[in-house]
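mind reviewing these C-alpha cells:
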Amino acid sequence: MLDEIDYSINILTKGGIILYPTDTVWGIGCDATNQSPVSRIYKLKKRAETKSMIILVNDIDMLKEYVSNIPETVLDLIKYFEQPTTIIYPGIRNIAKSLISRDGSSAIRIVKDEFCKQLITLFGKPIVSTSANFSGDPTPLSFHKISEKIIQSVDYVVRVGHDKINQLKPSTIIKLSKNGEYEIIRQ
C-alpha cells in the first residue's frame, strides 16, 4: 500500500489526476489547492465549474487550515460521525477557486478510509474527490464498472481496492451557516 501512496503523491505533486478508492466510492482526485488539475477534472467529467466537488482532508487540524471558523459544536459532532459525513463550510481559504462556491463555501469531509487517510497525511494537502463517472451518469459501484474512458483520462489508477464493491450510500451532507447553525441536507 505504501508504494501506491508514494506513487500517487508523485502524480499529485506534479499536478496530475488519480483514480482512487475513497471511504464512499471510487473517486477522481487531485491537489485541491491547484487550479490546473481541478479544471482538468471538470473538463474530464463534462461538469460545469459552478457545480462544486467534495474536498477530502485527513483530520481536524488540516480542516482548520482551510476553514476560517469551525464552531465547537461542529468539532464535537465530527468526533461522533460513524458514517462518511461531508460538511459544507463557509469561509473557505487556500483552496482552488473553482472549488469554492459563490457564497464562499465548500464541501469537505474528514476521511476514515485508511488508504485515503495515509495518502492525504503524507501528501500534506487536501485532495478533490468526485465520483468516477461522467456528469449525469450513474455512480459505479465497483472499480470494474468505471468507464474505460475515465480510466484512460487520468494520470494514474491506484492499484488498491479493485475487488471491493461499494455500498452506494452517499455521505451525509450537513450545511453550516456563518452563524454556526447547521442543517442536514442529505442523510
User: Anything to note?
Assistant: The CA atoms of residues 67 and 92 lie 5 Å apart. The chain is about 30% helix and 20% strand.
